[in-house]
Amino acid sequence: MHVFITGATGWIGSATVDELLTAGHKVTGLARSPAAADALEAKGAAAARGDLDDLDALRRGAGAADAVVHLANKHDWADPQESDRADRAAIGAMAAALAGSDRPLVVVDGLSALAGDRPVLESDVDPDGNEHHGVPGVRTIAVRFAPSVHGHGDWGFVQFLADAARRTGVSAYLGDGSTPWSAVHRGDAARLLRLGLESAPAGARLHAVAEESIPTRAIAEALGQALDLPVASVADPGHFGFVGGFFGLHLAASSAATRTLLGWHPTGPGLLDDIRAGAYTA
C-alpha cells in the first residue's frame, strides 16, 4: 500500500513512517523543509514538499496514494482557531482527492472535547465534529490519542509539565491530584495507526490508549523523583502555563473496543516507567 502522511517527521509521524516501512508499505511524507525531506529519504520514504496551507500539495499527495494518514497540526496554542481552520481545510482538500475511491483517510484528534466524569468510550461522539465521518466514497477512520503519547524525545504535554517543574522548582499537581489521564507509548500508537489503516472499517473510532487512568498526582510524583524536585499541590492552573488547562481535565479513556476490533495489544513501557527512566530529564 502506498501511504501519504502529513506530519511525517513529527513525534508520532516519524514512528508511524518506520512502522509502515517495516510492514512493507510504501510511504510518501509531507515535508516542510529540505531537512525534513532528507530525513524521510534517509529512511527509504519519499518526500513531497509542502505544508498544511499548501492545499494543492495535499491534494496531489492524497490523490497519488492508496491511503492517507493525517498527523500534522499547527499546534498554535496562542491561536487554536487558526490551527482548527488549517486542519479542516487540509482534511477537506485530501478528502476531496479521495472521494469516490473507498480509500482510507485516517484523521487524528485528542480527547479534550470529550472530557467528563467517566472514561471516554469509542462510541462517544465528538461534539465538535472534528472526526470528519461521512465523506462520500472515503473510508474515514478517526483515531483519538491519549493526552500523553510518551517516550524518550517526547515534546508534548508531559514535557511541558517537566519544564514547568524545572522553572518553578516544584513538581506540582492540581487539587488532590486524583484527576486521571490516559497514556500510550509512541511505538504502540504507531502500530495502532498501521492496524487501523489496514483493516478498520469506515466510520471507526479508535482509541490510542494503553493505560486508561493515571492520577495526575502520580505523574507529578514521578516527575519529582526524576528531576529531584519536591512535589506539591497547587490551586492555579496557570502554574503550568498553557498545559494547565489540560492537566485539570478528566482525560481517562477506554480502548477495549479498539483492542477487540484490531487485535491491538500495547507492549511499550508505561508513562510512569518512562518518566522514572529519564525520558523527561533532558
Automatic annotation (TrEMBL):
Entry's Gene Ontology cellular component terms: cytoplasm
| Any one GO molecular-function label of the UniProt entry | aldehyde dehydrogenase (NAD+) activity
Matching InterPro entries: Epimerase_deHydtase, NAD(P)-bd_dom_sf, NAD(P)-dependent_oxidoreduct
Q: Which domain of life is it from?
A: Bacteria
Which intervals hold domain NAD-dependent epimerase/dehydratase?
3-80
The protein's name in its UniProt record: Oxidoreductase
